[in-house]
Sequence to fold (222 residues):
Amino acid sequence: MKSIWVFEDVNLFSMLCPHKFKAYKQDHQFNKYGKEDYIYFEEDSANKVYLIEKGKVKIGHYTESGKEVVKAILSKGELFGEQAILGEEKREEFAQSLDKTTSICPVDVNTMHDLMRDNKPFSFRVFKLIGFRIKRLERRLELIMFKDAETRVDEFLKELADQYGYCCPNTGDTVIKHPYTQKDIAHLIGTSRPTFNSIMNKFKEENKIDFSRNEIRLKISA
Fold:
């Protein structure tokens, strides 16, 4: 099953960071951000797209009441701000660094258009990414609107297993080494951190899972 929470295992940074191309290397530089630094805000000009060299980036927006809605949490190799490629002039979301040391490769939209024209495989992946994220957001909205928190956690664990899991040869359990904090996951599935933690502990008591800070183990008995 394809993941609905994160893009496919495609490192777009390693595939097409402009520093790899002689024509752009001289003027290319990386931007560094600390934890909770904003890369851009809603209503900022959309004149660049961004590739993540290192760290994690949260994409979201704020409702009229000031509530934060998290649309995605992205990590190394992924692309964001991609709506600028389609002609977006003002940002409709914010992008915020979640790590102490996040390194971002900014790419001017015109440069990206040039590179996409010259690199059809990359162009295909970018357009596939845009379509994939639309489908993912539709699926997330469906889950949040019609499923209870426990079901959302269960679905998310299955998606994590697809993306990051491997079978432990000794036990047959699925071991998931993932980059998310409990707060990250709670935001992504539309619940609170205490609720998420409570559900995880319930699953643990039922011997469905075991977990630590950056590892979740899905028990074979589950």
Summary: Helices lie at 12-16, 22-25, 109-118, 120-146, 149-164, 182-188, 193-205.
